[in-house]
């Protein structure tokens, strides 16, 4: 007999072995056969954005989904209340290595609601705790696939392509939390920065890159200005090539230099 294949991590770990179909039960009263024999009923009001999952002698009986007044037997009936309104929680700052191995500090905001009360009440112990536990793992896994910043526009980064990163985190968290009857609305990045141990070094690198880019722009502009000026003056004054080269060099020094020009006169 061949050995079974190894299990792979993924949604298979969270799949229920005996799924029970959803069954609405919005009857005002007389929901179970025992109600006709022993009419010991308990009346209650179900408000908006609330649902009640009913377990009759330990077995799923139905879900009350509509707001209103209901009467249910007190014999063998367990009711589990589920909130279906929007819930938002802010994740704490988490240190993660990006795609280039740089440590970054990142946090996220998750917005979700429960759209399947039966799964939330039966398939998991605490659907809210389930989302809180899965969100950091998804955040770390997705963030590790992107660099903090990228000079190549074709490579998405955490700073420039937050929408792409957020959509991917939402999709992965949705796949993990579907078993709990949770619908993930958004999973967005809240705070993003380099870790303190490399923040100063990265700041110096960014300043150096900005200085190089600024110098490149200055040199390109100075070259065009100097060449146009030499061409115009050379045509009007009939300058020799040596004079043009000397004039071009002087103009470049004046335009590119970061200090004020000091005029000099040749006396010999």
From TrEMBL:
Q: Which residue ranges does the record assign to the Band domain? A: 41-206
Gene3D superfamilies (alphabetical): Band 7 domain (3.30.479.30)
Q: Which InterPro entries match?
A: Band_7, Band_7/SPFH_dom_sf
Query: Which Pfam family, just one, is annotated for this protein?
Result: Band_7
What this protein is called in its record is Band 7 domain-containing protein
Q: Which organism is it from?
A: Gracilariopsis chorda
């Amino acid at each position: 007999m061949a050995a079974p294949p190894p299990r792979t991590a993924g949604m298979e770990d969270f799949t229920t072995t005996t799924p029970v179909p959803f069954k609405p039960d919005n009857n005002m009263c007389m929901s179970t056969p025992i109600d006709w024999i022993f009419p010991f009923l308990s009346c209650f009001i179900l408000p908006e954005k609330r649902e009640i999952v009913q377990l009759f002698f330990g077995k799923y009986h139905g879900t009350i989904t509509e707001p209103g007044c209901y009467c249910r037997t007190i014999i063998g009936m367990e009711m589990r209340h589920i909130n279906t309104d929007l819930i938002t929680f802010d994740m704490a700052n988490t240190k993660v290595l990006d795609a280039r191995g740089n440590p970054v500090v990142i946090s996220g905001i998750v917005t979700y609601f429960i759209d399947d009360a039966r799964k939330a009440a039966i398939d998991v112990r605490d659907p809210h705790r389930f989302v809180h536990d899965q969100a950091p793992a998804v955040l770390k896994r997705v963030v590790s696939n992107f660099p903090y910043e990228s000079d190549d526009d074709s490579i998405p980064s955490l700073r420039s392509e937050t929408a792409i990163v957020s959509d991917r985190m939402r999709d992965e968290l949705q796949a993990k939390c579907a078993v709990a009857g949770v619908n993930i609305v958004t999973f967005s990045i809240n705070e993003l920065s380099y870790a303190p141990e490399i923040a100063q070094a990265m700041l110096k690198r960014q300043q150096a890159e900005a200085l190089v880019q600024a110098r490149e722009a200055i040199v390109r502009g100075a070259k065009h200005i100097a060449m146009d000026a030499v061409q115009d003056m050379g045509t009007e004054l009939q300058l020799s090539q040596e004079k043009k080269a000397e004039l071009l060099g002087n103009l470049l020094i004046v335009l590119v230099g970061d200090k004020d020009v000091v005029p000099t006169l040749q006396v010999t």
